[in-house]
From TrEMBL:
<keyword id="KW-0645">Protease</keyword>
<keyword id="KW-1133">Transmembrane helix</keyword>
<feature type="domain" description="Penicillin-binding protein dimerisation">
    <location>
        <begin position="51"/>
        <end position="278"/>
    </location>
</feature>
<dbReference type="GO" id="GO:0008658">
    <property type="term" value="F:penicillin binding"/>
</dbReference>
<keyword id="KW-0472">Membrane</keyword>
<dbReference type="InterPro" id="IPR012338">
    <property type="entry name" value="Beta-lactam/transpept-like"/>
</dbReference>
<dbReference type="InterPro" id="IPR050515">
    <property type="entry name" value="Beta-lactam/transpept"/>
</dbReference>
<feature type="transmembrane region" description="Helical">
    <location>
        <begin position="7"/>
        <end position="26"/>
    </location>
</feature>
<dbReference type="InterPro" id="IPR001460">
    <property type="entry name" value="PCN-bd_Tpept"/>
</dbReference>
<dbReference type="GO" id="GO:0005886">
    <property type="term" value="C:plasma membrane"/>
</dbReference>
<keyword id="KW-0378">Hydrolase</keyword>
<dbReference type="Pfam" id="PF00905">
    <property type="entry name" value="Transpeptidase"/>
</dbReference>
<dbReference type="InterPro" id="IPR005311">
    <property type="entry name" value="PBP_dimer"/>
</dbReference>
<dbReference type="InterPro" id="IPR036138">
    <property type="entry name" value="PBP_dimer_sf"/>
</dbReference>
<feature type="domain" description="Penicillin-binding protein transpeptidase">
    <location>
        <begin position="325"/>
        <end position="631"/>
    </location>
</feature>
<dbReference type="GO" id="GO:0004180">
    <property type="term" value="F:carboxypeptidase activity"/>
</dbReference>
<protein>
    <submittedName>
        <fullName>Peptidoglycan D,D-transpeptidase MrdA</fullName>
    </submittedName>
</protein>
Amino acid sequence: MYKSRFKIFFGIIIVSFFVILCKLFYVQIIEGGKFSGMSDSRRIRTVSIDTLRGTIYDRNGSVLAIDKHSFELTVPYAKLFNAFLCIKQNILPEVSVGKDKKITHNLCRKCHSDNVSWIERVAETLEISYADILEKTTNIVERVEKIKRVVEMKSEREIRIKEETVPHSLLSDLSWEDTAKFQVRLMDLPGIQIGGKPVRWYPGGDSASHIIGYVGKLDEKEIRAYNFKKRWFENLEESEEPESEYFVQKAISMNSLVGKSGIEKTYNSRLMGVPGEKFEEITLDTMRVDKLILERPSIPGNNIILTIDDRIQGVAENALGERKGSVVVMDPWSGEVLAMAAFPRYNLNTLNEDYSTLSKNPQKPFLNRPIQSVLPPGSVFKIVTAIAALEENKIDENTQFACYGSLKVGGSRFRCFSEYGHGLLNVEEAIQYSCNVFFFEVAKVLGGSLLKKWADKFGLGNTTNIDLAYEKKGNMPASKSMSQTVNLSIGQGAMLVTPIQATKMIAMVANGGWCINPYILQKLTTYNGKMIMDNEHTSAERIDVSEENMDVIKRSLRRVVTSGTAKKTGLGELRVAGKTGTTQTARDDINHAWFVGYAPFKNPKYCFTVAIEHTAGHGAEVAGPVVENLLTQLGL
């Protein structure tokens, strides 16, 4: 019984194998030519699906940066490479009947000239320059070959990189008319397609350009520095984690747009998103898609909400006008930066066209002045000198020094801006009238080490760690002589600070000594609005300063605008407390004009810094009107 069952089972297996062999014989031998032809005429190709970069909003929901759709013309890399070799050997378009057109470095003009004929047809159809397409083709190929060399050098072997297998964008931002015109001739240009592509758009143009920053393709330095095996996306929650490392690595390629400056750079890994992929069956003769086999959708980048108030940013830029310098407005209690204006600046939407001109501009429009202009603070620093002397018990609020217009220290004579002096002054009056000699006397009893100690407490000469790239540190030197200490006590000499550091310093005065750090990221959400992070900075340490001494400084700053160096600015009526500053440059007739302050005086809502660079005027007469314009527009 069992033997018969085994024979039946064994027989079924033999019959099955026989059927399979027959089918294989039929497919490979009898129908082999048919399927071979299909294989030669069709291929499966992988196409990357662009993802949307995250949107950047201000604190009230106004859009500052967003991806919008546009049309682009793409060309397979093989077509570009073939044309590149023809261009290099000066093979111009001619009629060709050659079928076997394998590209080598010894090209035949008769057989291979049609490898560049498509360029002439694209140029004619879209009515653009033939030379422009040649240049773009050359740039793309040279860039791909450069990446290929870098990857091969790192891997120490020959590699076929992704950029050799995908279509490349030759022309972008095509109009509806050009798109429609090209579609008519699409069948005549196998492999060349027009499709949608997201393009970064900035509704404000040049507004907040240094804060937002811009995007661009990886440059040669970034390509060489980039570890192609590294995860690009950090700190993703488990729910956001891409399913495959393979797809994450595809996010970075030659055509990926990465942040180059500002928020676009700082939070690039959050904004980028993960591209998708689709697998298509195509007919090789026409490069037309026969069917879609599989598609993996892209994952849009995270959205970012900033602390910036777009209205206040506009007010600050309007108040600054075309004066070279910067304006910073900040919440003195939290450190939220509400506005950070700089001039000159640049239009983010036309940056590619303007870049060459901007890079040659001696006014340095790419300099993010609030965090990168390092300037001597001048009399603004007298606030710190006064606090240091009061807290170290070197003086009290009743201590007086006489000013007769100058003071000799060692072999040098240091002068007050008042030729005849201010007479006998206490610390409040010295700040009110910005008397240099009073602070020279204070420096003599205070000493350089204590002066540096308190400058460090207020963050001067150190980065604030604001979430923007390329912040400059500045400099607060350790004094090596009494003459140097005297000079540093009034913010001159080798001392250098940035406007954002000065803003942090005045904020600490306004809030009573709490050490807050400026920041710009408020919230982070997924593309569909799910909260990832709420960046509320609530923890802050208070520096060791008495309320009595801080009150002395606050009263002094109020007197500056009511009856002191800024009394003619009209800021007294706006309930402002502040300090003017004027620092010398290499030219006697050119200064840097400062004004730091906060308002309202009794319950500060804003603290601010205005720094006007290379101006003929002084702090009150140049920076003062900017502050008045700013606060008037803010409704104070």
